[in-house]
Amino acid sequence: MRFYIKIIIIAALVYFGGPHFGWWWIAVSAFIGGAILKSTGFQSFFAGAFGVGLVWLWMTLKIDIATESILTQKIADLFNLGQSGLIIGITVLIGSLVGAITCWTGHNFRKLFEGQKRGYYH
Amino acid sequence: MKFLRFLISILISGALVYSLNQKIGSIPPLGKLLDPFHGFWQNAEHDPFEIGFDLSLTQLNNEVKVQYESNLIPHIFAKNEYDLYFTQGYITAYHRLWQMEFITFVASGRISEVMGEAAIDFDRFQRRKGLSEATERADDELQKYPDVYGAAVAYSDGVNAFIDQLSYKDLPLEYKLLDYLPERWSPYKSLLTQKYLANDLNSDRDLQNTNMVKIFGKERFDFLFPDFTEDVDPIIPVGTPWDFEPIEIFSPDNREIKNSYSVSLQDNYIEGIGSNNWAVSGSKTKNGHAILCNDPHLGLNLPMIWYAQQLQAPGVNTFGVTVPGVPGILLGFNDSIAWGATNADRDLRDWYQISFRDDRNDEYSYGGKWLKTQKIIETIKIRGQEDFIDTVVYTHYGPVVYDRSFMGDSNRVNLALKWTAHNISVDFKAFYDLNRAGNINQAAEACKSLDCPPQNFALASREGDIAQVVQGNYPLKWKEQGKFIMDGSDPNYEWQGYIPKEHNARIINPERGFVSSANQHPFNSDYPYFYHSRNEEHFRNKRINSVLTASEGITIDDMKTLQNDNYFTLASSILPVMLDSLNKGELSDGQLQFAEMLRGWNYMADPEMIEPSYFRAWYIKMYKLLWDEFDLDVPVAWPNDHTTMNVLTKWPTDTAFDVLDTKEIENINDIVTTSFTQGIDSIDMWMELNDGLEPLWYRFKNTRLTHMTRINSFSYSRIPVGGYKGIVNATGQNWGASWRLIVELGDEIEAWGIYPGGQSGNPGSTGYDTFIDDWAKGKYFKIAFWDQYREDREGVLNISFTKKTEEVN
């Protein structure tokens, strides 16, 4: 459950904060998502990937469909990718990768303090 | 342990975000670029009409109304000139900001800043030609004309108002891909744009000529590269009397050509650059109104060099195209007159061999004395590297372009450039005045302010007058002066001033009922001043003149047909001789079939025909065999198509026919037959490389529209369009009719236009390629020219720019 809540928190931060900050906002969002809820490092990694990746997938599909791939295809050709779908894939992949690593980093950040807390109560 | 894990993960995160935020090699900053909220995705346009900016601006004096047609052509209605040019600048930047800035980077040699070290030689060459330095002086001079300079300032303010509103998300795509930011605009940059045009349109052949005289001898050189030919059909018709007393010119005796030069010549000459214009008087048109036509042939790039619009304010109402960066209209019409220009290039760039006193290059020999040089340090910023420092030595002639540190192969090569583009001029005034001219005399007078690049202006008025004005600042030279590299230490080689503007010939309402120009000789050899040019046109002008002479009751549709005329005059002149000279016994039946096919050709270079492809393939091979003696290691020029035609049709025993690499002495039949076989082979090879496609002319020719960055996916190739060099529809591989305009000046002005591109410079907009298909088909859009703003026009987008009043607390 926490895993899904993590994803939703990150996705919401990315979706609503995205238009107002630079692209690095995905790193901040995923870091926050990784730090505020307890979970395993493994879960954090994937929550970060999905949280960012899903929003970026939604946004790119929306733009691609609305503009009938007018630019998606040209950028795909520019990177020798052939199909316009691949540039969507790479966009999502890069967003997910940054989300995953930074969410895991957020999780590791949380761990620093969890350890200390454990020291107090056990 | 926990801390270590955190440390490692935050380092990885940091490195990842950092590297995705950087351009690495040729890979753009992927994080920034791919972010759907700000990256390239935001450049994909849902609706090209959506203008998401605040159009309430403090700089405006009054409200400005803009009406966009569905093809994105804006009509700007302002209440004063400042607001008019401000809005023009804003709107042009909205559609073309990256292009307009990039043009100024090309002109001032700053491409390395954006593209990296590969462009260093290009930048050094641009800077060594001294255009930036000349632009600074032009900027000072233009300030003496407050109206004209005011337009440039207002335009600049408009561009900057747009730049100030830009965030990363709204940046033109190219900035995101190449990872840099726009700078602020200024009138200086508008003037740089004009120098960019001068650089594109001026060329010379002095160094090549010098080498050719050394190699082939003067007699042979003169024979193959004559200043005049007996069949010239000049702009000012033969027999027109000169109504002025020419200035006497001093001509020195000793004019020996001493050296040849093996520098790595940097040549920006594009052989297809040129233009057509003509104006027909009402006596020859169906409706009795004058008609003006113009099609400038320039490099075919995207975004296209032209941007179309209507500009209206009290005292001016004009429609036409301009180069993004230049305020006003460069080519078009107003409510009284229409004008069109063709390049009027002559040898405006001369080269002087400089003899320095020593390696310090501080002094050079001149008239038995030592003159001091001036040195300008050019700092070339290079992306990702340390700056490159280039010292450019200036003499009184101009900058030393080639020397031991740049392209010269020895200490002896020091070539200074003297060029009319270095002179102070107020060229913008010509167009500012043309935009407002009320009749043919005012229009002809307006042209006088244009010095460089010189143009032939065809003019027509609603009053029914037509004129052709040959306009520019031309140096006064003795016969053959500047055709070869000159001795810079000898004062006798100085230019002796300039041809007075009144002696630049013009013709108004000639008896033949039309005026025309197509980059041919402006005058016959009886013009009292010496002039020559690199490559005068010999074919388009004759075709245009013969069609116009034979035409009566001319309509706009006739003019559309003529602008798109694909008659291949060169082919019609030489193909019969080529076919007759074939040694048929040496050819197979299959090859002979192609000869028969060509014999039945109507000489039209239409896009869907195969005959032009076979002719062209044959011609190239024949040309190379014929002029094989020009295949040398030092820079030379090759004879033009007109000389090639003459050799084939008039001088069948010329030595050119011998191929140097063989023992035998070849004759015309050998050359023609060998090249015929080679030509067919080259078509076969082309078909093999193209999966057996039929070699239709448009495919074989391959007209391309190339994005200025050369990014393939933003470019278009194999555009289905006919024509070629020397054809009225002068559309080759990477040059062609960059704008076609037809204006009939009746009570109501009826005008048609088209250009190969679109109003939007954004590859992610449907407005990027709007006109390309129609242009290729020879179609036009009907130009809307409105006398005033009307709210209720259908199919337009109405936009208001309003004055923002500062909020008072």
Textual characterization of the structure:
The complex is a heterodimer of chains A (122) and B (809). Chain A is mostly helical. Chain A has one domain. Helices cover 81% and strands 0% of the residues of chain A. The radius of gyration of chain A is 17 Å and the shape is elongated. The two termini of chain A are 26 Å apart. Mean pLDDT of chain A is 90; it is low at 118-122. Chain B has a domain at 569-701. Chain B has 22 helices and 28 strands. In chain B, the strands form 6 sheets. Chain B has an 11-stranded mixed sheet, covered by helices on one side. In chain B, strands 4, 5, 22, 24, 25, 26 and 27 form a 7-stranded antiparallel sheet that branches. In chain B, β8 and β9 form a beta hairpin. The longest helix of chain B has 27 residues, at 81-107. Chain B is globular. The N and C termini of chain B lie far apart (58 Å). The A-B interface holds A 18-19, 22-24, 26-27, 31, 56, 59-60, 63-64, 66-67, 70-78, 87, 90-91, 94-95, 97-98, 101-102, 104-105, 108-109, 111-112, 115 and B 2-3, 5-6, 9-10, 12-13, 16-17, 20-21, 30-32, 34-46, 168, 173, 177, 711-714, 763-766.
Record the SSE blueprint.
The complex is a heterodimer of chains A (122) and B (809).
Chain A: H1 2-17, H2 25-36, H3 41-66, H4 72-78, H5 84-121
Helix pairs in contact in A: 1-2, 1-3, 2-3, 2-5, 3-5, 4-5
Chain B: H1 2-20, H2 30-34, E1 56-57, E2 64-68, E3 74-77, H3 81-107, H4 111-115, H5 120-128, H6 131-142, H7 146-165, H8 173-178, H9 187-201, H10 206-216, H11 218-224, E4 274-280, E5 291-299, E6 301-302, E7 307-313, E8 316-322, E9 331-334, E10 337-343, E11 349-353, E12 363-366, E13 369-372, E14 374-380, E15 388-394, E16 400-402, E17 415-419, H12 427-434, H13 440-447, E18 455-461, E19 466-471, E20 486-487, E21 506-508, E22 514-517, H14 540-550, H15 556-563, H16 569-580, H17 589-599, H18 611-626, H19 641-650, H20 668-689, H21 697-701, E23 706-707, E24 735-737, E25 740-745, E26 749-754, H22 772-777, E27 781-782, E28 797-803
Helix pairs in contact in B: 3-7, 3-9, 6-9, 10-11, 12-13, 16-19, 18-20
